[in-house]
Design brief:
DOG1, 5 helices, extended, 131 residues, mainly alpha
């Protein structure tokens, strides 16, 4: 069990480092395109910016999908990755990104429907018709 957990942690860390590597490659290009846009403002530059922005968003989607896949195997690292420093983890928590926030979001999205269904279920047991 310990070895498997360590392998998952390593896979999650590699996933993170891969994403950060992609970001470090894309950021200088993004800064350059933004500087050119300020000085020139041409339409070709806008198309390049849109393309690069699409790549950056795609990179993040891939990273999020990989993390979600790895979270199925070990969910605790999803909330406080082991490769973060204690300061980074503290800032994540102070910033409001806590596991309880995720549970509240799920409840907000699904909870109201659950309450309605329980009420309808109880009405059906009591012999009342639900509308």
């Amino acid at each position: 069990m310990g070895s498997s957990s360590k392998n998952i942690e390593q896979a999650q860390e590699c996933c993170y480092l891969e994403w950060m590597s992609l970001q470090s490659q894309r950021i200088p290009e993004l800064k350059q395109l933004l500087a050119q846009r300020r000085s020139h403002g041409d339409e070709d530059n806008d198309n390049k910016l849109r393309e690069l922005t699409g790549k950056i968003i795609g990179d993040f989607k891939n990273y999020a999908a990989k993390r979600a896949d790895l979270a199925h195997r070990c969910s605790s690292n999803y909330y406080t990755p082991t490769w973060n420093s204690p300061l980074e983890n503290a800032l994540i928590w102070m910033g409001g990104c806590r596991p309880s926030s995720f549970f509240r979001l799920v409840y907000a999205l699904c909870g109201s429907q659950t309450e309605i269904r329980v009420t309808q279920f109880l009405r059906n047991i009591d012999g009342y018709e639900s509308s």
